[in-house]
Amino acid sequence: MRIPAARIDRHRGGWWWAAGAALLFTGIVCCAQDQMPTKKSDYSEMTKAPQSAVTRHNPLENDPDAVAAGDKLFERHCSECHGKTAEGTKKGPSLRVPDVQQASPGTLFWLVTNGVVRRGMPVWSKLPEPQRWQLVSYIKSLTPASPAVQSEGNSSSPKD
């Protein structure tokens, strides 16, 4: 028994239509997630830092040039995702929120070193250790976001 060509084409077209609809739906969901405001869960990765990292001291804490150097490194490596003044964007969360500003220098160093690859933050372990500490110094120097801005998810306050 031979199946007419028109019948085969009708079934083939239905499959392609369903696949196309599924891809479109997936694209819409992914785009909608990228436009969601920053959530508390964006900072949950910091809780994974081991105690040995949390207690690390920033050796450049009292170096007056560390913040300026960290600012330049931030602009080069981090601002595309976190914003020019670390207020956060669709790609990366604000670094001015209390969760970040109250984190220990060692926790921030651990996070910069290991990244959050599943959320798009690269691993910066190849950046020399002094430069990673300069980034930590810069992040810790930022003015915390105001409570009204924090509830919106991103801060647009300028740095000190």
In short:
The chain is an all-alpha fold and 160 residues long. It has helices at residues 5-34, 51-54, 64-77, 79-82, 98-101, 105-114, 129-141, 147-152.
Task: Give the helix proportion (percent range).
Answer: 40-55%
Rounded to an integer in angstroms, the radius of gyration calculated over CA atoms is: 22 Å
Topology as a string of helices (H) and strands (E):
HHHHHHHH
| CATH H-level homologous superfamily name of the largest domain | Cytochrome c-like domain
Shape: elongated
Give the second-level CATH assignment, the architecture of the largest domain.
Answer: Orthogonal Bundle
- Mean pLDDT, all residues: 79
CATH fold description of the largest domain: Cytochrome Bc1 Complex, Chain D, domain 2
| Count of helix runs | 8
Can you tell me about this structure?
With 160 residues, this protein is mainly α. It has 2 domains: 1-35; 39-152, Cytochrome c-like domain (Cytochrome Bc1 Complex, Chain D, domain 2), CATH 1.10.760.10. It contains 8 helices and no strands. It has helices at 5-34, 51-54, 64-77, 79-82, 98-101, 105-114, 129-141, 147-152. Helix 6 (105-114) crosses helix 7. The longest helix has 30 residues, at 5-34. It is elongated. The relative contact order is 0.16.
